[in-house]
Amino acid sequence: MTENHGVREVEYEQPTNELEEEIAAVMAEVLSVDRVGQRDSFYDLGGTSLSAIRICARIERRLGLRVDPLWLLDHDELADFAEQIRLGAE
C-alpha cells in the first residue's frame, strides 16, 4: 500500500522492534496521523521544530531515555531516528 504524505509517496514499512513501535506511536499521536512506518519522514508527516520537542519529551517520559530534538530534525525517518536514540543510550 502506498500513502501520499504530501511531499512524496512512501511504501509503508511497519516498525521492526519495540523501540521503533514506541517511537512510531508517539510520533503518530503528536502529529495526528494514523500510523508511522520505518521510512516515513517526520517532515512529510507535517513535523515542525515544536512537534519535535513534544515527541522527544514524550519519548523521554515513556521510555526513560534522553532524546535530543536535533536527532529527530537530523534523522527524520523513523528507523534512522530510532537508531540515533539507540546510539545515544549507549
Automatic annotation (TrEMBL):
PROSITE patterns: CARRIER. Residues 14-89 form the Carrier domain. The keyword Cytoplasm does not apply. It comes from the Bacteria. InterPro entries: ACP-like_sf, PKS_PP-bd, PP-bd_ACP. Pfam families: PP-binding. Keywords: Phosphopantetheine, Phosphoprotein. SUPFAM superfamilies: ACP-like. The keyword Translocase does not apply. This is Phosphopantetheine-binding protein. It comes from Streptomyces roseicoloratus. The lineage of its organism: Bacteria, Bacillati, Actinomycetota, Actinomycetes, Kitasatosporales.
